[in-house]
Design goal:
It holds the Pfam family SoxZ. InterPro entries: Ig-like_fold, Ig_E-set, SoxZ, SoxZ_dom. By secondary structure, the chain is mostly beta strands. The protein is built from no helices and seven strands. It has one domain: Immunoglobulin-like (Sandwich), CATH 2.60.40.10.
Length: 103
């Protein structure tokens, strides 16, 4: 299983800004190792975020996203004390979900 995501969610007015740093190798499938063999593709395909259990954002990603990707988005209507959960699934079927409380 991948390392935990670093998530910060801060309320400001009627919205919350969420910042996520994901730990993932994000291989494109085009690089070669020292022996000249192609390194297989391994990347996050889907990212989703939920506010108090209700999905508020989904994204489809591909191999062109950088290693250890950073994602920032805003959630309208979020307030301090709400729970934000961020999940991802990669092309190998690995999954990760982490949660934070809006401050």
């Amino acid at each position: 299983m991948a390392d935990p995501m670093r998530i910060r969610a801060q309320a400001a007015g009627d919205k919350a800004t969420v910042r996520v740093l994901m730990s993932h190798e994000m291989e494109t499938g085009q690089r070669k190792d020292a022996a000249g063999k192609v390194i297989p593709a391994w990347f996050i395909q889907e990212v989703s975020a939920a506010l108090n259990g209700k999905v508020v954002m989904t994204a489809q990603w591909g191999p062109a996203v950088a290693k250890n990707p950073f994602l920032q988005f805003s959630i309208k209507g979020a307030k301090a004390g709400d729970k934000v959960a961020v999940s991802w699934v990669d092309n190998r079927g690995d999954k990760r979900t982490d949660e934070v409380t809006v401050s």
